[in-house]
């Protein structure tokens, strides 16, 4: 493709937001055929630190069965290509995984807790045959037959067999994979830096317009640990702010949902599975509890390389979105709930060590026009939006970054159909 006249003009490109979308956008801008570091400047401005929000605290699941279908195949393929090119298997834990929906009965916490590292001391411990059986890495004939009857793969051996009700496969290593989100996001930012992108830590205060607000002119930000605003001229501004989008684009239909998660070092390495659970907790799940009816909870549990496991719970809107990702409040009780649910179904997780208790905010698109994400041009010349990726931000990051680089340098997306797929920000009056 011959360079366009516009691509040969000096461009001052500013990306606002250093999560997965901003980092992959910077990466693909620096890899675009028209990118010329002597003509084009690329600045990535992040208020806290790269991957300090959901992009560093997500599960990192990748799937061809994710949504939206218009960009998922592109992004899934790019994940594989990036891993091959940059050693992603070692650098950010890229690998294929199996995925399934699991229905299982949980054990009472007093029965399930043996006082593993990072967990509460045992309460009324009892003899647990399942624990002995798994610690020896053996199964009785009855256990093995029950495991098969429930449809559980043979190598998914880090759950309490006798409590499993059913297992339904959702994905295989051919159509499902994973990355470590923090490692992947920071690697994308570093690789963009190596090709000329500059990362600035600071908070953007305003976007400045010209021509009766019909085009961007400059952006004003406050560098971290300073009180002096800086204004830089811009030809292109790409907003990749996730749940903070409304701070600069007030009418964007993007809200925030808080989510808690933990990471665990299990007592032994767990096979490569991503599990969507449906756990039935018994009455009086916790010692001293008064509830007399079973409860149903559904944490997601992902085994990772290097003997680590990630588990997340349901979202909440109890605490408003703070000014930056560095100020996100963590509810320790919600993290402990997740740990307790894991203990209720797995000895390896019960006896493991809790490494991290964390929270983040996911962007949610709220509009009858669609469910997001929003990506592409806005009605203002030079202003682009790429936000609202919900829980599939890591999965769709490379595809989004690739498409945004095409919007900037080519004037339109060429690698996937976006503008007619309900993702156009202009459909939302932006």
UniProtKB/TrEMBL annotation:
<dbReference type="GO" id="GO:0005770">
    <property type="term" value="C:late endosome"/>
</dbReference>
<keyword id="KW-0472">Membrane</keyword>
<dbReference type="Pfam" id="PF01266">
    <property type="entry name" value="DAO"/>
</dbReference>
<protein>
    <recommendedName>
        <fullName>FAD dependent oxidoreductase domain-containing protein</fullName>
    </recommendedName>
</protein>
<feature type="domain" description="FAD dependent oxidoreductase">
    <location>
        <begin position="13"/>
        <end position="406"/>
    </location>
</feature>
<keyword id="KW-1133">Transmembrane helix</keyword>
<dbReference type="GO" id="GO:0042147">
    <property type="term" value="P:retrograde transport, endosome to Golgi"/>
</dbReference>
<dbReference type="InterPro" id="IPR006076">
    <property type="entry name" value="FAD-dep_OxRdtase"/>
</dbReference>
<dbReference type="GO" id="GO:0005829">
    <property type="term" value="C:cytosol"/>
</dbReference>
<dbReference type="InterPro" id="IPR036188">
    <property type="entry name" value="FAD/NAD-bd_sf"/>
</dbReference>
<feature type="transmembrane region" description="Helical">
    <location>
        <begin position="12"/>
        <end position="30"/>
    </location>
</feature>
<keyword id="KW-0812">Transmembrane</keyword>
């Amino acid at each position: 493709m011959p360079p366009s006249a516009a691509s040969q003009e000096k461009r001052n490109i500013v990306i606002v937001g250093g999560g997965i979308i901003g980092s992959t956008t910077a990466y693909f801008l620096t890899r675009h055929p028209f990118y010329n570091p002597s003509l084009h400047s690329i600045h990535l401005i992040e208020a806290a630190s790269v991957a300090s929000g959901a992009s560093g605290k997500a599960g990192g699941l990748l799937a061809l069965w994710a949504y939206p279908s218009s960009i998922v195949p592109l992004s899934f393929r790019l994940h594989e290509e990036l891993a091959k090119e940059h050693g992603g298997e070692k650098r950010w834990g890229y690998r294929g995984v199996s995925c399934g929906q699991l229905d299982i009965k949980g054990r009472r916490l007093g029965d399930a807790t043996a006082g593993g590292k990072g967990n509460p001391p045992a309460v009324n411990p009892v003899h647990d045959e399942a624990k002995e059986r798994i610690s020896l890495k053996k199964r009785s004939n009855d256990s093995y037959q029950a495991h098969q009857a429930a449809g559980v793969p043979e190598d998914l051996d880090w759950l309490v067999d006798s409590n499993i009700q059913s297992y339904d496969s959702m994905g295989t290593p051919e159509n499902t994979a994973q990355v470590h989100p923090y490692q992947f996001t920071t690697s994308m930012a570093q690789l963009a830096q190596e090709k000329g992108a500059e990362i600035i830590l600071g908070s953007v205060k305003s976007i400045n317009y010209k021509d009766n607000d019909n085009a961007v002119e400059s952006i004003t930000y406050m560098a971290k640990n300073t009180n002096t605003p800086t204004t830089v001229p811009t030809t292109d501004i790409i907003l990749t702010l996730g749940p903070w989008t409304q701070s600069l684009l007030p009418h964007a239909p993007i809200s925030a949902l808080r989510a808690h998660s933990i990471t665990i070092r299990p007592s032994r390495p767990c096979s490569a599975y991503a599990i969507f659970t449906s756990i039935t907790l018994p009455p009086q799940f916790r010692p001293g509890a008064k509830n007399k009816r079973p409860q149903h909870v559904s944490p997601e549990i992902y085994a990772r390389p290097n003997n680590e496991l990630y588990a997340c719970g349901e979202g909440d809107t109890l605490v408003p979105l703070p000014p930056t990702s560095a100020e996100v409040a963590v509810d320790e009780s919600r993290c402990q709930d997740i740990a307790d649910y894991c203990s209720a179904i797995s000895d390896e997780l019960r006896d493991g060590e809790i490494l991290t208790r964390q929270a983040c905010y996911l962007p949610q698109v709220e509009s009858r026009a669609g469910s997001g994400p929003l990506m592409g041009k806005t009605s203002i010349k030079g202003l682009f939006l790429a936000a609202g990726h919900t829980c599939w931000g890591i999965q769709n990051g490379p595809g989004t970054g690739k498409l945004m680089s095409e919007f900037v340098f080519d004037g339109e997306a060429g690698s996937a159909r976006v503008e007619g797929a309900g993702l156009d920000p202009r459909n939302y009056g932006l």
